[in-house]
Write a structure and sequence with these properties.
37% of the residues lie in helices and 15% in strands. By secondary structure, it is of the alpha/beta class. It is globular, with a radius of gyration of 21 Å. Bound molecules: pyridoxal-5'-phosphate (PLP).
Length: 391
């Protein structure tokens, strides 16, 4: 697929003739055991990408998805698959960290990633130091003798700060420190992470890759220096994904480009409309200037996806609850990246340790789905009207 453009790679990636036969899509290969023809063949075999060995190391169904994801990231050596996005994060961290090391972690990180660092990694003897997501090249001053990795998530969970990924990665590389990015929001389509200097790029495939809110999966795509360690760690942790789930994600991937562009168009329109509403104090959408790090988005990203937050003007949790419960088209539920719109109340002030989160009113996070944006705007308008009048 070298030289082909992204949409073409999305359609053709991983569909090797030897894996799909005469079918268009590689089928679901279910199996734990793969049989060898002789003891000599069994003894000579070793696990590895695309090599039949044992279910843990994949079948053509998982390899097809992993290869398609690798082909989306210029500079990638390979991709590992994990049961969900959080498992991809934790496997990536365990690939680069050992007891006694220090990890620099963005203060805007996804809550369960923070919990893993503060609990599991702490017990394992790794210290986590949180940094301001907007630190940029100032990360150099935080890198110490024991620092072995910098973890980024851009934009950040809930508060959407866009990080200066190239500057942070350049500073880390100069000191021999590994960089990991949770790239779930942008995907390689809108942010080619490895080309920007990242060593290990993580996706919660549960979101835009699957795209239909019916599968959980994660992936880590790494460059050549890190891929062997990542693959080994993933096997040692016993991480594998069901071929049905891999197949669903391969299926989702083929339409990810058109879906993302529709999410982008609708979310941008709705964010622009929300900015004009008197009940809204700020819209935190990377493509709009109120969002911290907006300049980095303009410089580095090829697009924006369907997830953003906004701050209500005044009011507290009970007013926000009334607003959320008045919405008819937005489901109340965790996750995002599916075809349907969702909403969650967000309280980042409870999570932060390196920076303070302060706002004029309560925060709401929206996932804009593929419904007609005019219907979504009408729904938001009626719910904001009720919030405002206190009825
Ligand atoms: C930014 C981010 N990373 C990782 C994850 C974890 O993905 P999963 O739900 O597949 O474990 C999520 C889930 O919401 C997320 O928002």
């Amino acid at each position: 697929m070298k030289g082909r453009r992204t949409d073409t790679r999305l359609v053709h990636g991983g569909r090797r003739r030897e894996w799909r036969g005469r079918l268009v899509n590689p089928p679901v290969h279910r199996g734990s055991t793969l049989l060898f023809d002789s003891v000599a063949e069994m003894r000579a075999a070793a696990p590895g990408f695309g090599k039949p060995y044992y279910g843990l190391h994949g079948t053509p169904t998982q390899w097809a998805l992993a290869e398609a994801l690798t082909e989306l990231e210029p500079g990638a050596a390979g991709t590992t698959l994990h049961p969900n996005g959080l498992a991809a994060v934790t496997a990536a961290l365990l690939s680069v960290l050992s007891t006694g090391d220090e990890l620099l972690m963005t203060d805007s990180v996804y809550g369960p990633t923070r919990r893993f660092c503060d609990g599991f990694l702490k017990r394992y003897g790794v210290t986590t130091r949180y940094y301001d997501p907007l630190v940029g090249s100032g990360i150099s001053e935080l890198i110490g003798e024991r620092t072995k990795a910098v973890f980024l998530e851009s934009p950040g969970s809930l508060t959407m700060e866009v990080q200066d990924v190239p500057a942070i990665c350049a500073a880390a590389k100069a000191r021999g420190v590994a960089t990991l990015l949770d790239n779930t929001w942008a995907t390689p389509l809108f942010f080619p992470a490895l080309a920007m200097g990242v060593d290990l790029s993580i996706l919660a495939g549960t979101k835009y890759v699957g795209g239909h809110s019916d599968v959980m999966l994660g992936s880590v795509t790494a460059n050549a220096p890190w891929y062997p360690k990542l693959e080994r760690t993933s096997w040692d942790l016993g991480q594998s994904v069901s071929p049905d789930d891999a197949w669903l994600c391969s299926r989702g991937l083929r339409t990810m480009g058109v879906r993302l562009r529709q999410h982008e168009a609708s979310a941008s329109r709705i964010a622009g409309w929300l900015r004009e509403q008197p009940q809204v104090a700020a819209v935190l959408h990377p493509a709009f200037p109120d969002c911290p790090g907006h300049e980095a988005w303009v410089r580095d990203f090829k697009g924006s996806s369907g997830l953003f937050s906004f701050v209500l003007r005044g009011g507290g949790d009970s007013e926000r609850t009334r607003f959320l419960e008045a919405l008819e088209l937005f489901g109340l539920g965790y996750s995002w990246g599916g075809f349907e719109s969702l909403v969650v109340p967000a309280d980042p002030e409870r999570l932060r340790t390196a920076t303070r989160w302060e706002s004029e009113g309560p925060l709401v996070r929206l996932q804009i789905g593929l419904e007609d944006p005019d219907d979504l705007i009408e729904d938001l308008a009626q719910a904001l009207g009720r919030w405002n009048s206190g009825s």
